[in-house]
Amino acid sequence: MRSAMRPLRAYFISRPNRFTAVVELEDGSIEKAHVADPGRLSKLLFKGNELLLVPKEGGKFRYRVLAARMGDKWVLVDSGLHNYLAELVLPCVPYLSAFGRVVRETRLPGARIDFKLDGYWLEVKGCTLIEGRVAYFPDAPTARGLRQVKALKRQREAGILFLVMADADLLALNYRVDPVFSREVAASGLDLFAYSFSFDGEALEPLGLVPTTREEDPAGVLPFLSELKEAVEEYNRLHGPEAQYDIIEVNRDSFVLALTGYGTCSCCLFDYLEDIIYEAGLEGWSVRSWKNRGGHFMIRYSRSGGP
């Protein structure tokens, strides 16, 4: 996806409030620009860092901040694009793509939720905080996010889709910044999906699914995640369109895979659910639960004797 207009380059000076940035344009003039993302963005909005601006229609500012420099990459910070990006990638997210009807901006008691997919409630969160190869959400305490999670937990089926605005290996909850929100999500039965993007300043490229974790120490699951990725890639290579796994979530004592392919419609379904355990040599693991939507299966595996 390519921007319809070429962004303007600017340099960050200050942030007098969470929705305003003072910036210096390339011609030396000083402007105020709208910041749509209410997060701290402390690793992106610091004095002298390079920004990309686009013209803003209406309001008191001429520009809004589109992206900020992070090393040799750009990170999108325009949260006004989140629902559009979510709709762009929903057809590529296993299980979520099996729902037919998509309704934007729906209400539950006490909270507004981004999407309702048939009977499934989905909240979208943008993630801009990347440390190493791990993305963290949130980067500031989020009372609104906590209300939304509590409302989602009361529904029969619901989840969160995190949009990671840079390449990452894992999406983790940020217990250091907001332990209340993080623990509420971790203890919930909500599905946790993540999808990443790369932005070169002009074109936005969807990169693919990112595994999520509920663990307080994400570094502790990275070695197992690496082994699981290798096993899943080999399984998918051998089975092709018959059966394909995607890693949705990985924890110390459990992981979640999405299973798609024409084999899920056969009488050998339960063999497919367990295949990855035997073919990857995951001794001590077993299928804990599974659910199906239109031939898209979400399977939770746990260690024998685990929760």
Topology of this protein?
Elements: E1 8-17, E2 20-25, E3 30-34, E4 50-55, E5 63-70, E6 73-76, H1 82-89, E7 102-108, E8 111-117, E9 120-127, E10 129-131, E11 134-137, H2 143-153, E12 158-164, E13 170-173, H3 179-186, E14 191-199, E15 204-209, E16 212-213, H4 222-239, E17 244-250, E18 254-260, H5 269-279, E19 285-293, E20 296-303
Parallel strand pairs: 3-5, 9-12, 11-13, 12-14, 13-16
Antiparallel strand pairs: 1-2, 1-4, 2-3, 4-5, 5-6, 7-8, 8-9, 10-11, 14-15, 17-18, 18-20, 19-20
Description:
The protein has 307 residues and is of the alpha+beta class. The protein has five helices and 20 strands. It has a six-stranded mixed beta sheet. Strand 7 and strand 8 (111-117) form a beta hairpin. Helix 2 (143-153) packs parallel to helix 3 (179-186). The termini are far apart.
Annotation, overall tally of beta strands: 20
Catalogue the unreliable spans. none
Average residue pLDDT? 92
Helix share, percent: 10-25%
Class of secondary structure makeup:
alpha+beta
Number of domains: 3
Radius of gyration computed on alpha carbons: 20 Å
Multimeric status of the protein: single chain
Under the CATH scheme, the architecture of the largest domain is: 3-Layer(aba) Sandwich
The largest β sheet comes out as:
6 strands, mixed
* Spatial separation of the terminal alpha carbons: 42 Å
